């Protein structure tokens, strides 16, 4: 026979179990709903890197013939655009092209407004501090473009005292005025397309940047412009990614190797640059390494 104290203890334990069961029944729907929301969020959340994405937002140029140009129907075409399409397909993603200027590239990558930048993007030590680079996928050479009737400029040293375009976000003018110490008269412009318009209008004496860029402009208007063919730098074009996306960078490098190994790169180089007289090669450039 139980004592009164033992009876009271059993009664309290039974009441506790009853209250606990009721509380669990009340909280169960709430917890289930919270878990469902958490799982839904995980399922819908895009990875921060480029790997595993169904769509890749890719920054490309819109006013550089042969490199990246937006046509009248809104589509993009050019060597960089075709490279971007290949890389996206290799990664199992659809490309969503975004027009971009040289001055926007680092900012848009840093703010994750684009996933990749394939836009005549030279790899430099300063830029590597801000973004990651896959590649290079092509090596260009800085050259000079003048009006067809120009008889004064034959080498980079002839730019001394000449009106030279300073395109926004570009470092090409620095190669001349800073690195080589040639005192040209810099004339600012927003894009290379604007530089070309100013050159044709007689507001400039010369435009200097990579030969693969200049070749497209010269080929479009051979009666108006010519290349001096005074190559004086090597320009390694890389594909820009967010600084933290090392895995994505390595995946893009694998795509670029495949592009050269299956012959696609050689066909694209021949299509976009050989008509302008540029020499191309089907060999994979030596990569800089992701960091």
From TrEMBL:
It holds the Pfam family SBP_bac_3. Keywords: Signal, Transport. The keyword DNA repair does not apply. SUPFAM superfamilies: Periplasmic binding protein-like II. Residues 55-276 form the Solute-binding protein family 3/N-terminal domain. It comes from the Bacteria. Transmembrane segments: none annotated. The keyword Transport applies. GO terms for cellular component: extracellular region; outer membrane-bounded periplasmic space. SMART domains: PBPb. InterPro entries: Bact_solute-bind_prot3, SBP_3_CS, Solute-binding_3/MltF_N. GO terms for biological process: amino acid transport. CDD domains: PBP2_GluB. Belongs to the bacterial solute-binding protein 3 family. This is Amino acid ABC transporter substrate-binding protein (PAAT family). It comes from Actinocorallia herbida.
């Amino acid at each position: 026979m139980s004592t009164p104290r033992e009876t009271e203890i059993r009664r309290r334990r039974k009441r506790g179990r009853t209250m606990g069961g009721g509380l669990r029944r009340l909280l169960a729907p709430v917890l289930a709903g919270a878990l469902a929301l958490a799982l839904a969020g995980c399922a819908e959340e895009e990875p921060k890197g480029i790997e595993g994405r169904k769509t890749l937002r890719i920054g490309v140029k819109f006013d550089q013939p042969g490199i990246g140009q937006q046509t009248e129907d809104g589509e993009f075409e050019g060597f960089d655009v075709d490279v971007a399409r290949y890389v996206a397909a290799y990664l199992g993603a659809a490309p969503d092209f975004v027009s971009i200027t040289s001055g926007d590239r680092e900012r848009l990558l840093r703010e994750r407004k684009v996933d990749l930048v394939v836009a005549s993007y030279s790899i430099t030590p300063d830029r590597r501090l801000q973004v990651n680079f896959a590649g290079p996928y092509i090596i260009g050479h800085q050259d000079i473009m003048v009006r067809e009737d120009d008889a004064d400029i034959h080498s980079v040293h002839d730019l001394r005292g000449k009106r030279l375009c300073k395109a926004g976000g570009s470092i090409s003018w620095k190669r001349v005025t800073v690195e080589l110490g040639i005192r040209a008269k810099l004339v600012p412009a927003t894009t290379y397309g604007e530089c070309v318009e100013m050159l044709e209008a007689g507001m400039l004496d010369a435009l200097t940047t990579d030969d693969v860029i200049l070749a497209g402009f010269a080929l479009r208007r051979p009666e108006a412009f010519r290349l001096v063919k005074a190559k004086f730098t090597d320009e390694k074009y890389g594909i820009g990614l967010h600084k933290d996306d090392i895995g994505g960078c390595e995946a893009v490098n694998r795509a670029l190797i495949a592009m050269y190994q299956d012959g696609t790169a050689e066909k694209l180089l021949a299509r976009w640059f050989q008509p302008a007289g540029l020499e191309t090669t089907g060999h994979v450039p030596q990569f800089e390494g992701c960091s």
